[in-house]
Fold these 2 entries.
Entry 1:
Amino acid sequence: MNREIVLDTETTGLAPPGDRIVEIGCVELINHIPTGRHLHLYLNPDRSMPEEAYRVHGLSDDFLRDKPRFAEVAQSFLDFIEDSTLVIHNAPFDMGFLNSELEKLGRPSLRNGVIDTVAVARERHPGARVSLDALCKHYGIDNARRVLHGALLDAEILAEVYLELIGGRQVGLALVAEQRSYSIEISTTIARPRPIPLPTRLTEAEREAHAAFVAKLGDGALWSQYLAVS
């Protein structure tokens, strides 16, 4: 089983440890398929929200004031991600913030494997824009709900983008083609062979006696027609 966690965060700014995480969104994938399990946390950063950050995600001081601190939910977060590979858009940013929060608590940094979809997108589409919005446009993914940044919404959208980046649609089409080919192969394999007539059990004397009997019935007898065919 291949378990991956698509992850996104929202923060008070760009530079930990002064800036803090205010939202975490995680979406579980099993074998590249969303399971419906997710983790969504809003966090009180214990500092004021800069206007620039507020314009990005719309999370105000008033909204976050009664939310838990990272220390209160750290274990729930770690329990959810376990040792799964993390799929993150611009992974150094989010990993830097997460490890900074863990360091504040005296906990070890994350050791999970990480897939940075920015790096994957640059490899797949050299020279193209690789923002989440640009990739949604490229792959025809509806992101109309993304008026503001939101960690869970962005993680859900990123899960769709990630599937496209690793060839999701092409893999699906290949599986359909393989299934069709397989069904044709089966129908050919199980085709019934032409029947082989069983050898007669009559002796020559019995055959001659039966022919003499049928001859007495006249030319219109059904047995006469059968013997002519056989």
Entry 2:
Amino acid sequence: MLAKFKKRAATNLVQSLPYYLIRAYSLTFRLKVENELSWLDHYSKNDGTVLLCAYHQQFFSAIRYFKKYRFYSPGIMISKSRDGGLISSVAERTGWYPVRGSSSKGGPEGLKLMIKHLIKHRLAAHIVDGPLGPAGKVKAGAIRLAQAANAVIVPFYIHADRAWYFNSWDRFLLPKPFSKVILKFGDMIKFNAVEGRDEFEFQRKALENTMDREYAILKGSI
């Protein structure tokens, strides 16, 4: 009994440590949030359904701030990889409901669970080019999820005036301590369901172009 308790305590410590490290590190950011109220009003006052979307490179800096949404029981799809297990633990402690699955493993089942969760709770987040890229390439899952749940897509972007960029497929962005970090939400986008492959590709490309353009503008503003 004692051995099981010690093992469980050690596991909880290992799983919780990344969460507290992220929160402590993020406290050093000089964070500025832009254009948040429009989609929050849509969610709260209009009973709207919202899917927040970001590139894999940029999500780290939003983790601490996104804890404020925990009362909405938001969902997020996280890969079934080993790294995904740590991220899932962080998400749970932040108040987000992790749905395990990705385009490379468990995708169809995960998407169904995400749709169900989004319809019920009306708020979720999605990494549009994860978990393995290519970087900046919007995959179909975000639009299919939004259409199935009748949700608006709200892209969000993060940029820092001083940051490290990892040598990874996404060139992961880690703001340096005490850097100025901007978290900017884009305008709400609604994609109606379409039947043809060409029409769907037009929507996917439109979202990709919008996110590329708006992030470029944000980077130029700092």
